[in-house]
């Protein structure tokens, strides 16, 4: 009976993400790690991980967390930008230059503002995570804005789509699982996405040239591990401590591994015979110029303190 | 009650016309998108979401009309075995189960729609579609479904229509 | 209660609710709702609306109403009988030429539509009365159409494959290509059987009817519009114009134009049945999709799906035995439910089991489709049987069934051949699209 009582007392949390489970995906591993560490801490807390959007659809995770369907999620914050326009800044071209820069950004006033908005929505940030990405093309390498003139491009997010359009590309809107065949048949000629997706969708089979993140990347996305405040408040002191400690470990693990994602990207594409290039600071600045009159501008119009947010981010050395 | 049933089936039919119109519109917009993209080489930003939402709305708005046509497929193994009296009782039970579900969906969708409207929810795409507009199809559709089911329960209970319709299997395709 | 025991309870409750004759969509919905309320409480229930809506908010689903519309448009015109007439004129020298022409017409029509009842209706309307008039055995005449009609979901485009592709996250373009050769194989097997039966029966009245070369050439232009539509869709698909989901829009538009321009269907009175039938069939499917996603959410949330997959993984049965059981289960389900409902309910549970046993998901999609074809002509719920019942109301169901039985056995043979030579399904997509993404 005592054993039964203990089992009853244990709290079970549901953690959801959209990435393949148990196949070594770093983002999956980050969540699994939290689950393992918390279990090892033996504080009567169990985390069940639902990978591959097997419980709720990728874009619904924010809403599902607020509604109590899930408790924890590893979530591209930009997906919720339709409800909190400010979150659009976390997938904004040219704000983050490289992984070291991303770590410094986490402690900046810019991220403090973003996190304030996350918390006001009823959500706790367990661990920070930034993912790098790049551009891929079926034709010539994309380094300067002029290179995309007239290209049919598929973009991972709205802010990038606006920049592509500003540089003269025509934007097509197709779901991520159709990108491979769209590139194959020529419906799309270029795309931007995260390093992990470039590899997992096997885009190296279709692309001629890859613009890898390097030291002057344009493409960075904030994808923290989040938890609903209501679920968090329900935990006791010991459980919270164990959870935050596990999350810290996962955050450090991820910071280390996300760099490896980029290395793996370059290695995989080179092995497949794809030309791999990176941008110079000057080339990245040319893109930022385009972004200033497109994505930054419309962000500033949509979000009350939008211009401020962008300036705060750009100030981070 | 006769009047109620007539009014509800009129509403369901109207909703069905709207839904069919949305499907046709979706076909036209897909073709327009391909033309803009392929022939003109321009950006196609709003069409994808527009078409998706049109068809979701067409589904929820078309469901009451399809119920009227008895087009929602069901398993008629047990009803086929039963005598007329038991068949009627089972038919009533089946319609009541359907009614309860549609009412529950209506109740939960109202709050959900309200949140989207009050919160000004948009999609995270370039188009920034206002979500309360397509979301409206769910409360409207489930309300009409519930009203249609009430009419059906009444018609079966009073012997005005045979339970499970005339066709075996309920749907022809 | 352990997740597995809970799964059993859910299964029983679902069967009970389905048995009352409640529409599948609402039955799945109420069961999901009940168990969510029981275990997750009011918070879980309040997410219902969002889950239902988000379940349908998927651009890939757009192709379903559009492929249905293609079939509805063409089936409402004389196009089906034209296709059949042209083939009959060219094949008249063969014994059993009409039956073969009907099966061939079904295969061609299947390339225009994603649904089987539409194929069955379009070709059968002309084909069955014509075959019976010329002295064909009624069983062969109805069986050939019932079976030929099922090709609608095997030869691309196919709504069944779209649903499977979405549920299994596999490429729909690849699935379509994988259906081509098995579709031709079944067409060949069906035709061979029709030839054999007719040859054994001896010469028929229709052997006297001779068509001159002129008559045969005169029938050709009637096939042209079909060729235009098929070429148009294939060009859109593989010529860099459209993704598979978008190509359906091109197909629907071309078919509407075809019936308007060639068959002069443009009055509201003639157009409305097209839109009504499209609405009826697609709403039926899409509503089941929405509630089956709610149902799937409930199962995953209660950990039933995962527990089941883990349980089967530990069982360590032979993979072919496993496949046999799965196919038997699908066959039984196919007796009572239409393909869309079966795929939506079973794929999320079945797929992890099948892939962990080392089967290729694309190949399995083809197997599943052939299995669903069988279900379309098995009683008590066989959509094609009802269509034929509508075309030839005087033919008793037992005659249709007797006539269909050899064709069903040929489908089983087809599945065995697919197991022995998986390349029948995978060769074409692998050759045209490169090796599969795993
Ligand atoms: Na087809
Ligand atoms: Na059946």
Provide a quick synopsis of the model.
By secondary structure, chain A is of the alpha/beta class.
Describe the structure.
The complex is a heterotrimer of chains A (317), B (173) and C (438). Chain A is of the alpha/beta class and 317 residues long. Chain A is 46% helix and 16% strand. In chain A, strands 5, 6, 7, 8, 9, 10 and 12 form a 7-stranded mixed beta sheet that branches. Chain A has a 5-stranded mixed beta sheet with strand order 2-1-3-11-4, with helices on both faces. In chain A, helix 6 links the parallel strand 6 and strand 7. The longest helix of chain A is centred in the last third of the chain and has 35 residues. Chain B contains 6 helices and no strands. In chain B, helix 1 runs antiparallel to helix 2. The longest helix of chain B has 38 residues. Chain B is elongated, with a radius of gyration of 20 Å. Chain B starts with a helix and ends in a 16-residue tail after the last helix. The C terminus of chain B is likely disordered. Chain C has one domain. The radius of gyration of chain C is 22 Å and the shape is globular. Chain C has 438 residues and is an all-alpha fold. Chain C is built from 20 helices and no strands. The interface between B and C is large, with 66 and 71 residues. One sodium ion binds next to helix 15 of chain C.
User: In terms of per-residue confidence, which ranges of chain C show pLDDT below 50 for 5 or more consecutive residues?
Assistant: none
**Taking Cα atoms only, what radius of gyration of chain C do you get, to the nearest Å?**
22 Å
Number of domains of chain C: 1
Strand content of chain A: 15-25%
Instruction: Please indicate the percent range of residues of chain C in DSSP E strands (runs of 2 or more).
Output: under 5%
Q: Please provide the count of β strands of chain A.
A: 12
Instruction: State the low-pLDDT regions of chain A, or none.
Output: 1-9
- The arrangement of helices and strands of chain C along the chain is HHHHHHHHHHHHHHHHHHHH
Provide the helix percentage of chain C: over 70%
Largest sheet of chain C: none
Bound molecules: sodium ion
Mean pLDDT of chain A: 92
**Overall geometry of chain A:** globular
**Percent helix of chain A:** 40-55%
What distance lies between the first and last C-alpha atoms of chain A, to the nearest angstrom?
59 Å
What would you report as the Rg of chain A, rounded to the nearest angstrom? Answer: 20 Å
Identify the overall geometry of chain C: globular
Largest interface: B-C, 66 and 71 residues
Largest sheet of chain A: 7 strands, mixed
Structural class of the secondary elements of chain A?
A: alpha/beta
Given the structure, what is the number of helices of chain A? 13
Keywords (chain B): Cell inner membrane, Cell membrane, Membrane, Transmembrane, Transmembrane helix, Transport
Domain Tripartite ATP-independent periplasmic transporters DctQ component (chain B): 27-156
Pfam family, one (chain B): DctQ
Subcellular location (chain B): Cell inner membrane
């Amino acid at each position: 009976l005592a054993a039964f009582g203990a089992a009853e007392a244990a709290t079970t949390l549901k953690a959801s993400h959209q990435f393949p489970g148990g196949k070594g995906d770093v983002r999956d591993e980050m969540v699994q790690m939290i689950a393992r560490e918390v279990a090892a801490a033996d504080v009567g807390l169990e985390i069940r991980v639902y990978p591959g959007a097997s419980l709720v659809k990728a874009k619904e995770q924010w809403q599902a967390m607020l509604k109590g369907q899930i408790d924890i999620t590893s979530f591209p914050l930009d997906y919720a930008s339709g409800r909190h326009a400010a979150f659009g800044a976390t997938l904004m071209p040219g704000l983050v230059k490289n992984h070291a820069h991303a770590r410094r950004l986490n402690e900046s006033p810019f991220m403090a503002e973003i996190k304030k908005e996350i918390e006001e929505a009823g959500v706790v940030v367990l661990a920070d995570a930034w993912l790098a990405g790049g551009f891929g093309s079926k034709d010539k390498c994309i380094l300067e804005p002029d290179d995309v003139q007239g290209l049919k491009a598929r973009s991972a997010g709205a802010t990038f789509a606006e920049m592509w359009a500003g540089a003269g590309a025509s934007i097509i809107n197709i779901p991520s699982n159709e990108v491979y065949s769209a590139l194959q048949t020529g419906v799309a000629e270029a795309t931007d996405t995260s390093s992990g997706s470039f590899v997992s969708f096997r885009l190296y089979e279709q692309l001629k040239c890859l613009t890898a993140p390097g030291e002057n990347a344009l493409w960075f996305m904030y994808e923290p591990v989040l938890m609903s405040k209501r679920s968090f408040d329900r935990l006791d002191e010991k459980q919270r401590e164990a959870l935050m400690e596990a999350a810290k470990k996962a955050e450090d693990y991820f910071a280390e591994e996300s760099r490896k994602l980029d290395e793996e990207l370059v290695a995989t594409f080179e092995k497949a015979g794809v030309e791999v290039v990176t941008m110079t600071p000057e080339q990245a600045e040319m893109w930022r110029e385009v972004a200033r009159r497109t994505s930054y501008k419309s962000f500033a119009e949509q979000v009350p303190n939008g211009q401020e947010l962008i300036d705060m981010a750009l100030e981070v050395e | 009650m006769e009047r109620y049933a007539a009014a509800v089936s009129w509403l369901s039919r109207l909703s069905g016309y709207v839904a069919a119109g949305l499907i046709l519109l979706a076909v036209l917009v897909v073709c327009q998108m391909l033309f803009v993209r392929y022939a003109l080489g321009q950006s196609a930003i709003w069409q994808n979401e527009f078409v998706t939402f049109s068809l979701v709305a067409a589904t929820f708005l078309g469901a009451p009309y399809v119920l009227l046509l008895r087009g929602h497929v069901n398993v008629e193994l047990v009803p086929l075995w039963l005598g007329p009296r038991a068949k009627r009782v089972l038919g009533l039970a089946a319609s009541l189960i359907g009614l309860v579900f549609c009412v529950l969906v209506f109740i939960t969708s109202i709050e959900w729609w309200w949140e989207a409207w009050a919160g000004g929810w948009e999609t995270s795409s370039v188009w920034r579609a206002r979500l309360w507009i397509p979301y409206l199809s769910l409360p409207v559709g489930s309300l009409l479904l519930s009203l249609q089911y009430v009419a059906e329960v009444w018609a079966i209970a009073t012997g005005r229509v045979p339970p499970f319709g005339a066709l075996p299997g309920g749907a022809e395709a | 209660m352990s997740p597995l025991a809970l799964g059993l309870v859910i299964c029983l409750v679902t069967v009970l609710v389905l048995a009352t004759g409640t529409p599948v969509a609402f039955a799945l919905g109420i069961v999901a709702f009940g168990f969510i309320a029981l275990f997750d409480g009011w918070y879980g229930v309040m997410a219902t609306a969002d889950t239902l809506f988000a379940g349908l908010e998927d651009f890939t689903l757009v192709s379903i109403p559009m492929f249905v519309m293609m079939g509805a448009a063409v089936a409402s015109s004389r196009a089906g009988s034209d296709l059949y007439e042209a083939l009959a004129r060219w094949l008249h020298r063969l014994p059993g030429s009409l039956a073969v022409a009907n099966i061939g017409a079904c295969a061609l029509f299947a390339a225009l539509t994603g649904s089987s009842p539409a194929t069955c209706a379009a070709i059968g309307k002309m084909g069955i009365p014509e075959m019976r008039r010329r002295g064909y055995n009624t069983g062969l005449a109805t069986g050939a159409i019932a079976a030929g009609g099922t090709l609608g979901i095997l030869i691309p485009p196919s709504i069944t494959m779209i649903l499977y592709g979405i549920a299994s996250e596999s490429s729909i373009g690849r699935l379509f290509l994988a259906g081509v050769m098995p579709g031709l194989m079944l067409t060949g097997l069906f035709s061979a059987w029709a030839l054999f039966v007719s040859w054994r029966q001896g010469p028929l009245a229709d052997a006297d009817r001779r068509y001159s070369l002129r008559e045969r050439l005169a029938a050709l232009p009637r096939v042209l519009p079909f060729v235009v539509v098929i070429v148009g869709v294939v060009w859109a698909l593989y010529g860099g114009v459209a993704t598979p989901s978008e190509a359906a829009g091109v197909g629907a538009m071309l078919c509407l134009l075809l019936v308007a321009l060639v068959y002069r269907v443009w009055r509201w009175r003639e157009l409305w049945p097209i839109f009504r039938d499209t609405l009826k069939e697609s709403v039926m499917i899409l509503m089941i999709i929405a509630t089956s996603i709610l149902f799937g959410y409930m199962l995953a949330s209660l950990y039933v799906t995962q527990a089941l997959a883990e349980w089967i993984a530990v069982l360590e049965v032979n993979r072919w035995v496993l496949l046999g059981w799965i196919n038997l289960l699908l066959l039984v389900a196919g007796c009572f439910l239409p393909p869309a409902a079966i795929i939506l309910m079973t794929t999320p549970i079945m797929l992890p089991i099948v892939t962990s046993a080392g089967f290729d998901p694309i190949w399995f999609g083809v197997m599943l489709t052939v299995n669903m074809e069988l279900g379309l002509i098995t009683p008590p719920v066989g959509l094609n049987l009802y269509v034929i019942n509508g075309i030839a109301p005087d033919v008793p169901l037992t005659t249709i069934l007797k006539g269909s039985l050899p064709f069903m056995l040929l489908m089983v043979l087809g599945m065995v051949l697919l197991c022995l030579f998986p390349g029948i399904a995978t060769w074409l997509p692998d050759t045209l699209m490169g090796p599969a993404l795993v």
